[in-house]
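Protein folds are increasingly written down as discrete tokens. With that in mind, we are printing a sequence and the tokens encoding its fold.
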Amino acid sequence: MISQGTKLSQRLAAEGGGKIMNNNCAKTHDIKVRDVMKQLYNDLQLKYPQKEWKLMTNIPQTMISKNINEKYVPSNKKSSIRPDGGVLFMDNIPVLSTEAKKQGTNDKRKKDGKSKQQMGNAIERAHKNYNEIKNLQEQYLFTSYILFGYGCDFVEGSSIVDRLSAMTYYDTFNTLHIKDQIIEKKINGKHLIERRKKASVFLQEDPFDEKFIYEKCMSAIHIVLTLI
């Protein structure tokens, strides 16, 4: 006879119960980042009252593209990005964007005696928003996109970690990369200058606490203010 608990487990599995549990944890992490951005917004208004501060949750693609290609017309006029923490503006300058991603449920599955699931791609969706924020900040000498990712998929040897390396231009994780890196090189005898706009990616297995997120975000803003 199958117990009620087993039936419930089977039903949740059939309905994507593992995903529901993972999504609830991810939403909690999203809320942390969102709350930190709201606190930053309030604190910065008090600290710099002469500046105009604005926190936007939705950034239209037309707002991003206008500084790169004025002729660009999106296929859907409503196309936009919604970073988990939003985008903080100072005097209409985008000074900070934050994301929160949870990746992996295999630690819980192992405790329950279940087989591993294939490592997902939730964290990889951050690539899209990073590229859009990088374009939004194209005219500035900084890239203040910070990703806070946690979960069991970040164990040593996980390929998920390597999939994020392109966002930092293969530089270190758990480091603020706010000031753009200027690289001079020669290609076919031509002297070229390249600008690398790196994401700041913080990764660990356990959830980040709000104090840590707040401190990293405030440090990033202080760096940005020296570059404007």
In short: The chain is about 40% helix and 20% strand. Residues 17-47 form the longest helix (31 residues).
